[in-house]
Amino acid sequence: MVNDTTLLLGLDGLAVTRVVAAGDGPQDGPVVCLATADERARCCPQCGVAAVRMKEWVTTRPRDLPMGGRRCALRWRKRRWRCDQVSCPRQTFTEQVPQIPARSRLTLRLRQASGAAVGDGGRTVIQSARDHDLSWPIVSAAFTEHAHRVLPAQPEPVTVLGIDEVRRGRPRWVLDEATDTWTTAVDRWHVGFVDLSGDQGLLGQVEGRTIAAVTGWLNQRDPAWRQHVAFVAIDMCTIFKSAVRTALPQARLVVDHFHVVQLANQALTEIRRRLTVQVRGRRGRKGNREWELRNRLTRSAARMHARQLDPMVDDLQALPARLGRAILAAWNAKEDLLDLLALARTHPDRSVIAHRLFRFYDRCATSGLPELHRLATTIETWWPEILAFLQTGITNAGSEGTNRVIKTTARDAYGFRNPGNQRLRTRCATTRKGRGHLNPA
Ligand SMILES: [Zn+2]
Questions:
Q1: What's the CA-to-centroid distance between 99 and ligand 1, angstroms?
Q2: Which distant-in-sequence residues (6+ apart) come within 8 Å of 288 by Cβ?
Q3: Ligand 1 center–CA 62 separation, angstroms
Q4: pTM here?
């Protein structure tokens, strides 16, 4: 009964009766005629009893995936049955198999392939629609079904959790007529939770950069999951700090070197700009050595050749005294901080850490520059978390890498109107590796 063509087509419950050769066009595929090959197809969808009285023949032409690069036209000649059960309100129904439900104009596998191309293949909805010859709404709905099928409802336990925010588009405001005030309809921030110790990728996102949003997501996890989190990597954001303190009291907070270095470089740049205006009466420009060195100043001296480093220090000393001395002090403070952060992953001795930290604080205090005083205060505020970085070497780089994927997805889609859809797309894109879709083998 089962012939080779039926095996080749692989639609369960349907048998190929014949194949009619294609037309002349390069895109024209053959016409595949199908017959029902499953007894269950004649069971009434409402009462489940197999029908015995046929009403008429009908032909359905669902679209299917291409075969060998050509689109085949399916013709399924099937029966419409009458349901004779007295208790059943259904009068007639047509045959259906799981791959081709009644009234469906697509095979299930075509619908699933179009959704998987978006969720697992990294394609945009419109490109998947073009590839599968479908419309945008069909593929979008197929993607949503696919995402809910493949994404785990609850994340697996993680040891190191990363929390980071990413901006999505502009905020939207609505006027509250009653109080005559504007309130945000759509928050422009998404806060993401990333598995930094395993390969689960982005575990979830919430809308809004607030303590309530972050603790809300964490409290949705079961207590065992929350207990399992030993470290949480964040950037220097007090919202995340207090949210983690509330929801995960046992976890140790870690702030990695990336944001600390960024702060030090900002302080250095602010000092250079402020003193340039004070000494020269205008902004820096070509011909001003400190302006020409602006990018070299924020580079790490450990990564610079002596050929570049020594002339830079000489040039700074040759500047007008007040300007050169301040920039050099700020640069030295930044380098002291980098020396301190370089101790991470070396199992540093407490006395070494204390010595380098004191040298940094001392440099900031004696400089007399308010920007450096502020930098030292920030470091002091966040010192327990920075010390945790020196001792564990945990960084939030995984979250920053995830943000890159989030932004690429948003650009590819030319932005999202619906934040819920964006979170689902983002979650699929950032978990592709963990779900085994980036492995070339
Ligand atoms: Zn029935």
A1: 21
A2: 276, 280
A3: 25
A4: 0.82
